[in-house]
Design goal:
Rossmann fold; alpha/beta; binds flavin-adenine dinucleotide; 9-stranded mixed sheet
Amino acid sequence: MANEKILVLVHTDPEGALPRIARETVTGAQELAAGLGAAFALGVIGTRAAEAASELAGAGASDILTVSGPEFEASRYASDAAAAEALARESGATVVLAPATARFARALPGAAHRLGGRIDTRVASVAAAEGKVRLQRGYYRQRMVGTLTREARPWFVVVDGGAYAAWEGAPGTAAPREVPVKLPESARRTKVLGVVEAGSGASTIRPDAPLLFVAGAGWTKKQGDGAAHVKEAEGLIRDFLDRTPASLGSSKSLVDQSGGEGEVISFMSHLNQVGQTGASPRHPKGLATCCHGEEPHVVGWRFVRERRAVNLDPGCGWARGKADVLYVADAFQVMARVNALLAGG
Ligand SMILES: Cc1cc2nc3c(=O)[nH]c(=O)nc-3n(C[C@H](O)[C@H](O)[C@H](O)COP(=O)(O)OP(=O)(O)OC[C@H]3O[C@@H](n4cnc5c(N)ncnc54)[C@H](O)[C@@H]3O)c2cc1C
């Protein structure tokens, strides 16, 4: 299909900041637009949308649209889907690129449906090939990659984090057009009173973090003195997470531990699990601690570009070409020293 009209759709967080993945999607839109010889428009939803639009004004969008106001500050399906629909209609977009945030993952399928369009998620790249838009996305927990194109429009393309470098150009001054949105009755019924984080797990998962810190079952195993030191382990991991913007991952063995047979790391949940039956995050760097590095775990690391591990066992899985650097050391000692250095000691 020639003459595509591209819209890159982003949202701010409730404080008005743009998530990094929004800037990554802008890079994806720039590359796609250049490949097609087309322009792209920018649509921003949420708190301080006009300021966020100015932050992205230097990216080269031909038109900048916003939807703002108190009704669009918090994540809510009814208002987000209505806002995305309004921006797609106003821009006349045939291809809508959007970041894979929880907020958009929930709302955009509905917007695509209302517009009679299609949507693809888990997209790792979107490019022009022979004048067509062609994307690549993962299947089977991202172990297989499919390349596809579609004729149906508008085509919503939800881009995974880490697929593109974040656009970091200088901010400009945008003169965005505010697009009116007619809120459906369901938006009036649903009031967002606040956000309560899940008791464990969720608050330690930080998709934008530069580092993935993985804890393995070794943290809860008997150590050289014949005893387990789970509370100490928990303190070291928590301390590190408090001092850095790292995201916490886990091996399956650690998250599978239940309270029945001894102490467990209290803030760890199945949401943290990395691997074949867990997540495949896209952090630039990863550090595995007390984790053996078995294949079903390490397969979840395939998008992590620089990998290091700390393990007492020089023959552990990481030593077999799975890590760039293996520190053969006691993770309790290493992390205590790292935390002391972070504290300025
Ligand atoms: C179908 C299937 C799917 C699976 N999916 C997943 C998955 O999605 N994710 C996943 O993680 N696993 C998965 N597994 C399980 C996987 O095969 C491993 O059993 C698991 O990853 C092992 O976890 P671990 O390395 O934390 O524990 P362990 O194998 O018990 O290793 C603990 C490590 O800690 C080290 N250690 C102990 N004390 C210290 C210390 N003080 N300092 C440094 N190192 C120390 C030990 O040397 C050891 O290497 C799957 C398995 C199957 C069969």
